Each structure stands twice: as structure tokens, then as C-alpha cells.
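Subgroup meeting minutes
Present: P.N., E.W., G.H.
Scribe: E.W.

1. P.N. recapped why we're keeping a running log of single-chain structure predictions: easier to compare across weeks, and new members can see raw inputs and outputs side by side.
2. G.H. added today's entry (675 aa).
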Amino acid sequence: MNTNAVDNQLITFSLNGVEQTIETNPKRSVLSVLRTDFGLSSLKPGCSPQGVCGCCVALINGKPRITCTLPAKTLAGKSIQTLESLSEREAQIYSEAFAGFGGTQCGYCTPGIVSQTHALLEKNPDPDDTAIKKALQMHICRCTGWVKIHDSIKAAAAMRRNELSIPLPKKEGVGGSWQKNSVYSAVLGRRPYIDDLDQPKVLHGALVWTPHPRCRINGIDVAEANEMPGVHRICTAKDLPGDRKVGLIFRDWPVLIDEGEETNCVADILAVVVADSREQARAAAEAVHVDAEKLTPLTNVLEAVKDPANIIATSTVVKGDVDAALANCTHTVSDQYTTQVIDQAFLEPEAALAIPDEDGGITVFSCGQGVFDDQKQLCELFDLPPEKMRVVLVPTGGAFGAKEDLNVQPHAILAARVTGQPVKIALDMAESTRFHPKRHAFHMTYTVGCDADGQLVALKADLVGDTGGYASVGDKVLERGAGHAAGPYHVHNVGVVAQTVKTNNPVCGAMRGFGVNQVAFALESCLEKLADAVGMDPLEFRAKNLLDPGLRFATGQIMNEGCGIRQTLEAIRPHYDRAKAEGKHVGVACAIKNTGMGNGLTEVGRVEFVVEEGGKIRLYTGFTEMGQAHDTVMAQMASQATGLPADTFVVECSTRAMVETGMTTASRATYLGGN
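Output recorded in log:
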């Protein structure tokens, strides 16, 4: 795609064995050229243009190179090879190896790793762990863990040497060794993510961000940007009449900030530029002039909590008389603990494709974690009935909680509605990082007491969570932290107060663990000190106080046979004892986490089967596939329940069927969908 014809150059190179000549800006990235001009979607724009994740690796003159940092001019005279050029046998080997040995989950990083694997095995048919580790230094995988990737590469090497069968044996039914749904195409980069989707006459959107975390927007001047090449429209808050706010729990997050309003954090968006190409849209977005009065941001949550107006919600857990019980404890420990904000670091930046329908409706392809929650908010935002707002889930390149909230779906829909054409918006990693909610920073004050024998008697905790500029699901994160503040231990007296507080910091919301990780860190630190005060081995101290079936959790719930913390602790005891006997530094910590929403909310699991032509059965689900293999699990359970072969079932997550199930979170999808 030409960005500035005046600066264009002719560049000739070999691409997958075919000589190519293009006229383009020599400063464009090789990644952009290969994806946009040649449609090679096996290269994924993960961290682009930072050059640190390895998702965009191609072989240039036989060597693996990160393409998002290479300028197009470096292609001149070179030979470029991508996964699209693999022979049928090579493609089968890598697909079987990575599918059969668990080397891929969400699949977003896998094509880059496979390109690296191909280059490695071409030179070294039998690499050891050292060689594999060295080859993978330019790659990041957020989902899997390197052991299974190493195993997959070794398996591919063995298949190339004809020492391992192709294909690998498979076993049907629950408990069998199944390959992930559509895993073969994912391994080779052929399964599309949203940014790989295309449509006739598709336009591209780019966002104009707030210049400061907190400022008053006095003016948004789009005149210069409107005159730039390829620009079709620039949408502002004035194109979205009515309530512009969205939110899963509190509808407080504006999709666009208007003139005269204040921004609350770096995630705020001022305008959407729509153009023929992504480069043109981004160039025009930079030309939008914003007149903003910088205001002092509130960044200290301990200062913010002093003002009741900043407190979104307060959760409490009360069991017994905690103050009286603490006064009678033989040993008490009291301390303060702080955890930091953590980013989920998924590799697929947020994206959405919106397609206007002839009947005035819209179809949006989403990478969110709940298509029905997306639909509900989008219907409210655009004043459309559900039948006019179809949301289709595209398998997601990782999420870990951060894609529960709406991201760029509203902006793509707005742009599609005002232009009457399909519009795709895809963030880069820098934009994604400033935009999506992260794990909360917690400030925690804990006091824990026990008797002379080491039996826990009382626990008191005050939790303050910084949810940033908007609520997201912050109140539920703090609620979950409060409920788990006593961990997997039987404590007779508990008093917990958890406050969710707004600041002008980045938005915080859902992340795996959902408030439990933070309190587990604080509690386990206290227990270590208590065990020392009693003079008891840390593992034995914990074992003495564990919950067992029949005992009450801190919130009053009676534990059933699913409470397996004692068996877990006993399983590691021999290893713990051996390490201590050998004089090694060794520690132990325990934690507990709920399955499902909890807190009295109704849990729903629904599926719908539709028999289609050709003997296929479409299995509609409301749960999101984001690397955890939910689609595979659904097909696996359907196969066992019906006795039909696994490949009978085509799994689809969309609002087309009435299978509303709620958000794909809290480890609930397999449990509810399967049941």
C-alpha cells in the first residue's frame, strides 16, 4: 500500500520462490509489505514495531528475521520464505508435532516459532535443548511454557528423520489425547485472527488518543486530517449521540471524549479516523490537532481513598468477633503489603471488524471474552435491538481476562455505520497496553493471630485496590479478594474490608486469579511469620490449619469433597522434607480459588445443536475460545455424548443462537458448557 508516492521506490526480491517487484515507500516495514501487499497472514503483528515477540519472523536468505523492524528497502535482492511456501510434508510435520505435543495454545506466536523451527532443522536435523533454546531467544509465548514447545520441535525433528510416525495416533472421547480444534491451520498461520480477516471495500480505522491522563479537551481540530490522502471520515463524540458510556458493571467508560469534557486516564479516545489503508488512517490520526488543558492527575490510591467520591464499591466479610479474638491470641502478626499493576501480556492486540447489513443492522467480529455481554452493551450504545447486532467471536490470541471489557468494537461499528462500508480497526501493542485493563495493584494491611499451639484464631484485613480511570470489573476483583482473604485455612473469626478506588492511573480489571493472587501473597507472608513465632515448621503450620470437607470457608460456604488442599500439600511433603534435609532453601505456600462467578450469581451453561447439510452438526456456544481449547472440549464432550465422530461437530461462538452463558471467565466455560 503506497503511503507517499513521492518517496516510493521500486524494490525487487524473491518471495517464496517467485521474483516480485513492488513500488512502495522504502521505510515501510517488511511485515506491512508482506501482509498487506501480498496477503501473507502467517506473519502476525504482535509487538509491532518493537521487534521483541517473534510473531512476525520470516526467513530472509535462509535466516530467521523479525520483519516488523526491517524497512522495505532491505528486501532488495533478497530471498524471502514464509510458511506459505512449505511443502505438503513439511506442513504436515510441523502441524502434527505442535498439535500432538502441546506446543501451541492460542496459536498467535506459533507460526513465528515454526518458521524458526524450520530454519533450525534445515541446518541441524537433531538439535539438543541448548540449540533449541538459542534458536527461540527472539520469541515470546505467553500461553504455553517452553517445555512443550521444546518437545514439539524435537518431535518435528524426529518426524523429519522418519523416526516418529506421521500422523500421530489419536484417541476419541473424553480423556483421549485430542488435538486442539483447527490447530493444524493455527500452527501454520492459516487460521485467521481478526486482523487477518478481509472484506471487499474494507476501510481501516485509527484512533486519536488523549494527550494526557487527565486533561480538559477544549477542541478537536480535524480539518488538516480530513484533507489527507485516503481519508473518508473522522468520527468524534458528536457522531455518537446519547449516552456514550459502556461498562460490564458500571456504565462509566465513554467510548469517545467530547470537547468540553475531561479525560480520566491514558485509555481515553477522542476520535476515529477512517481511511483506505491503515497507514493512511494512522498518518491522518497524527494530524488531528487537540487543544487540551493539562490537569493534575490523581495517581496515589491511598490519597484517593480518603475521598468517598473515589470509592466505587466496598466489600466486607465478617465471621465471628475478630477484634475480641485477636486480643486473646497468643501470637499475632500485623504488616502491610503492596502488589504492583501487572499486564496480561497477551500477544494479539485488540481488533474488530464491523460490517453494516442492508437492513440497518451490523455484524461485528470480536475478540472479546463474552459475545452476549458485548452484544448487550453495543445494543445500548447504538440503540439497536439484539437481532440487529450480531456479534461473532473470532478465536482470540490470548486474553487472560483483559478482553472482558469492550475494546475497539464500538469504534469499528461507529465508523462502519457512518461510512456504510466494512471497517477494521486493529491496535498496535503500544496502544493495546495503554488501553486494556490490567491486574490491580493492592495495598493490604493484615493482622493474623493464633493460639500457643499454632491454631489460627482470627484474621483481619483491609484491602485497597486501584481500579484506575474506570470501573471495569474492579469491584468484583476486590470482592473476590475479600472472599479469599483467609485463603484455604479454617479461621473462626474473620473481618475483611475491601475498597475499590478510582484514580487517573491505567484501568485495572480482570486477570487470571482475579484478586486472589494479591491476598494470597499477603496472607502467606503473615503465616510464615506466625509459624516462626510459634516455633513450628512452615508446612506443618499450614497443614494444621487447612480447610477440610465439612468445614466453613471464610465466607461461610461449607467445603465439599472438591476441597483438595490437604492432599495437595501432602503430595509435596516428601519433596519438601528431602530438600530441607539437603540444606536447600525451601518454602511453601497455599492458595484457593473459586470456579465460576460465585457470590450468589446464577450460573448458566447452554449449547445448541443444528444439523446442517453434508452431515455436519453446528454446535453453538456462548463461551470464548482464546487458547484454552474450549472449542475442542465442546466437540470432545459432544462426541462422547452422541457417539458421533469428533469431526462431525463445527463449534461456533456467536449471538446467532440463543445460548447466552455470560462471560468466559473464572474457569467456568468447560464446567458449564460441558454440563
